[in-house]
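Weekly structure sync, notes
Attendees: PL (lead), two postdocs, one rotation student
Agenda item 3: pending single-chain targets
PL asked that the sequence for the first pending target be pasted directly into the notes so everyone works from the same version. It is reproduced below exactly as submitted, 118 residues in total.
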Amino acid sequence: MGHHRAEHRDPALNECIDHCTQCHAVCLETIHHCLAKGGAHADPDHIALMAVCADMCATSANSMLRGASIHTVICGACVEVCRECAEECADMADDPEMQRCIDACLQCAESCEAMTRG
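Predicted structure, written out during the meeting:
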């Protein structure tokens, strides 16, 4: 990823930052895919949820990169948003791009959930 892995950070924290950063990128790429595809893919609520998911993942990664202790709360919110995004994208899972988004969201949710446990 684009950030420098700080050696002083816990490896699980670094992994979570990577998963959040990856999910952020995948959600943004999937928004572009959905808008180009049209139809149900371009539903405003669907696009809005993916945009919020991308934003939440970026905020979560940023909070961890900054060393903010509140990152556990932010990661908790990220878990919820990522799971909801994956669930909604599952309706279109026959599309490989949507499956890629589902996988990124679920991986990010799993990592962030581990961060909420401290």
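Discussion points:
- The CA atoms of residues 82 and 105 lie 5 Å apart.
- The radius of gyration is 14 Å.
Action: rotation student to compare against the earlier draft before next sync.
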